[in-house]
Amino acid sequence: MQLDLSENFRKPGKETTLSYEPEFSESFRDGTACSLKAGQKPVIEFRFVTTEKGHVLMTAKGELLFEAPCDRCLTPVDVPIRIDLERELTGPEAEKSEDPEEDESTEDLEGHSLDAEALLLKEISLAWPMKILCREDCKGLCPVCGANRNEKQCGCDTFVPDPRMAGIMDLFNQAGNNGKAVE
Ligand SMILES: [Zn+2]
Ligand SMILES: [Zn+2]
Prior knowledge:
8 strands, 2 domains, elongated
């Protein structure tokens, strides 16, 4: 959603609050099926305060609850993401800063409008956990039968040697047997 801040940038002292209900499409993260947890109506509270002409201090706060598959067993896991942002937005009418680093805050602005969704997606990406696990010691799925090893012991032999190695293993086994004086 594009938030039009043209009036904010013009009027020093102006203060605006806005409740934004984000909706993220399914699997907004590459290759991972993650989405807002069903039944969630999250709200991000935006506040814009114009500190001086062309400068708006933005704060955004809220809690988002996503659901994403466990990296090992694919069970859906709750992923809470907390948004707590404070950023200075610099509008096009502000005098150009000498320090290029200060201009970073304008990257989500186009003219006077702020792309709220793009801004939030970036924050979510930064806050997203490196690993999604249903529990610290998740045993994952059996590579042979696909069973969830947290739920049952399938008893599969998960040692799958390279077929080319199998022949060599046979030789080793024979050698072992020969050495052991078979009856
Ligand atoms: Zn798991
Ligand atoms: Zn198995």
